[in-house]
């Protein structure tokens, strides 16, 4: 296994951002022995309140298009459609980044997204 995952986090420790409101995505590489942080990618949030800009949402998906999945505290239906169009799976999780990435890495179903 060797896949990239984007994480929506404002503090670098917890999953605490909505996909459409994320100002940045932390990029990790999952591998057989664990995970490692690769980089921080700045993002322009697509959502302001209840509405979102589809073009900006698409740019966020393009920003992480080399990733096979994104982990966020919440992902709306429009964002899910956009992500699927870029072949990115959305995972809604909360808590620590390390715990979430370990859950994904050890999941039998996750091996299908290679």
| Strand order of the biggest β-sheet | 4-3-1-7-8
Overall mean pLDDT score? Answer: 91
Approximate shape: globular
SSE sequence, one letter per element? EEEEEEHEHEEH
**Global Rg:** 13 Å
Strand percentage: 35-45%
**Oligomerization category of the chains in this entry:** single chain
Fraction of residues in helix: 25-40%
Total E-strand runs? 9
Largest sheet: 5 strands, mixed
Low-confidence segments, given as residue ranges, are none
Tell me the span between the first and last alpha carbons: 7 Å
Secondary-structure blueprint of this entry?
Elements: E1 2-8, E2 14-15, E3 24-31, E4 34-42, E5 47-48, E6 51-52, H1 54-63, E7 69-72, H2 77-85, E8 89-92, E9 95-96, H3 97-106
Parallel strand pairs: 1-7, 7-8
Antiparallel strand pairs: 1-3, 2-9, 3-4, 5-6
Helix pairs in contact: 1-2
How would you explain this protein's 3D organization?
With 114 residues, this protein is α/β, with parallel strands linked by helices. The chain has helices at 54-63, 77-85, 97-106, and strands spanning 2-8, 14-15, 24-31, 34-42, 47-48, 51-52, 69-72, 89-92, 95-96. A five-stranded mixed beta sheet has the order 4-3-1-7-8, sandwiched between helices. A two-stranded antiparallel sheet has the order 2-9. The chain has a two-stranded antiparallel sheet with strand order 5-6. α1 (54-63) packs across α2 (77-85). The longest helix has 10 residues, at 54-63.
Supply database-style keywords.
114 residues, five-stranded mixed β-sheet, two-stranded antiparallel sheet, 25% helix
Question: What is the compact description of this entry?
Answer:
The protein contains 3 helices and 9 strands; from the N terminus they run E-E-E-E-E-E-H-E-H-E-E-H. By secondary structure, it is of the alpha/beta class. A 5-stranded mixed β-sheet has the order 4-3-1-7-8, sandwiched between helices. A two-stranded antiparallel ribbon has the order 2-9. A two-stranded antiparallel sheet has the order 5-6.
